[in-house]
Amino acid sequence: MFDVIPTPIVTGTLGYILLCFLGLGGVFGSRAVGVMDKDEAAIGNVVVCIASFGMWLFWLCAWLHQWHPLIAPIYEE
């Protein structure tokens, strides 16, 4: 299955998954220390997940648009 998916997509996806877990760890740490209460931590978890997914989707669209461009540049002399 992974031999069909280009390597940069797998690497980038794993990077954004790691970024999401780091953000969730930050929220968990803030909750454990007492900086956030239970409701704020719940909202923080949702925000981190949605933000990570949105950044990954934006990166994926930008990468896919540059992978096989439909229009080749025309150089005038």
Describe the structure.
The chain is an all-alpha fold and 77 residues long. It has one domain (7-66). The protein has 2 helices and no strands. The protein has helices at 7-33, 38-67. Helix 1 (7-33) packs antiparallel against helix 2. The model has no long low-confidence stretch (mean pLDDT 91).
Instruction: Give the termini distance in whole angstroms.
Output: 45 Å
Note the overall shape: elongated
Strand content: under 5%
Name the poorly predicted regions: none
- Give the averaged pLDDT, no decimals: 91
* Class of secondary structure makeup: mainly alpha
* Count of runs of 4 or more consecutive helical residues: 2
Q: Helical residue percent?
A: over 70%
Q: What Rg is obtained from the alpha carbons, in whole angstroms?
A: 19 Å
Main beta-sheet annotation: none
Number of strands: 0
* SSE pattern: HH
Q: How many discrete domains?
A: 1
Family: Belongs to the V-ATPase e1/e2 subunit family.
InterPro entries: ATPase_V0-cplx_e1/e2_su
Transmembrane segments: 12-30, 42-65
Subcellular location: Membrane
Name its key features.
77 residues, ion transport
Q: Which secondary structure elements does this structure contain, and how are they paired or packed?
A:
Layout lengths: L6 H27 L4 H30 L10
Helix pairs in contact: 1-2
